[in-house]
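Supplementary Note 3. Input sequence used for the single-chain structure prediction.
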Amino acid sequence: MRILYIADGRSPTARNWITHFIKPENQVHLISTSDCTAIPGLASLHVLPVAFSSTGISKTQEPNRLGTLRRLAPIFVRTFIRQWLGPLTFPKTIRRLRDLIDQIQPDMVHAMRYPFEGIVAALANPKAPLIVSVWGNDFTLHAKANPLIGYLTRRALKKTDALHADCQRDLRLAHQLGFPASRPAVVLPGSGGVRTEVFSPPAQPRPISPPVIINPRGFRTYIRNDVFFRAIPQVLHKYPEARFLCPAMDHEIQAHKWVEHYHLENNVELLSLVPHGQMADLFRQSHIVVSPSTHDGTPNTLLEAMACGCFPVAGDIESINEWLTNEENSLLVDPSDPQMLAQAILQAIEDHALRQRAETINAQLIAERANFRTVMTQAEQFYSEAAGV
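The predicted structure, written as discrete structure tokens, is reproduced below.
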């Protein structure tokens, strides 16, 4: 099968799927919406920016000259620019995309995310079957950002031949937005699941002290990092030795301001972007993983942290409830309430029995629903169904 991916080639999630399907029987092509390093085995790689996508920090490398906008503009400003001005770039992008599709002649096209890869892929009207992946907040946040993005998302869904969602909620929303119920659809973790040979519990039990809390979500408009940093002093009041690890925050000016404002220099480590595989080491150091999100699907980092034995403290939202149950394998909180978040972190630190019980439950969840090999076997079957093989 000749497969064409339209995705951000820096994304570990996209690279997981692409790498898996690079096989002798497949010819795999990538049109990346951002500059990226090549994936071994690709038949071709083209870079086609969409909605200013090449102006962000690399997801796989240290910041480069393209990272200026990300370093200087607050996250809400960057998001506003992409959502409101990004569609102005679509006509030129779609014309170029059609040319590339005609050149590659794929048997199947897989676009990853609706805003914006799925939209431009659908509007390019490929002759081959079109699969689109919807992740996280494509419907709950981005499709509601403005009337134009909402319209384009609904239009793209009607042109989508098969849909991959990372939670049941998004499949329900897709049908409400116009994706026909008669077409193939599957719910699988967005990243293709967890590579448990990489993300696994530590060989030896974690030291009880100091408690280590990790927030792996980085800076996004739907992650309440303001609440997270406001909660930290309350935790430190009782556990002054606690450590907080914050990957992908070192280059965020606002994160440094919060650390300075709340006098957290001795307890908070603002880290650079950590390579995907090395995140496992950070999870194995950590007792608790925090995900203070207001919009989400199934966060890859949350599943990976659970596979490493971290106890989840997360925003109490519908998609997260598909994996986590309060007081059973997690603590769920109002992500806008710093006191509630702090109390949940303190409870997780002190309730060793709850953490041990959750580790057992979560290991079983990962094995049954998120093991990479199992999930990608289902993905292969889904590809065959979508392609009519």
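The first strand starts at residue 2 and ends at 7. Confidence is low (pLDDT under 50) at residues 55-72.
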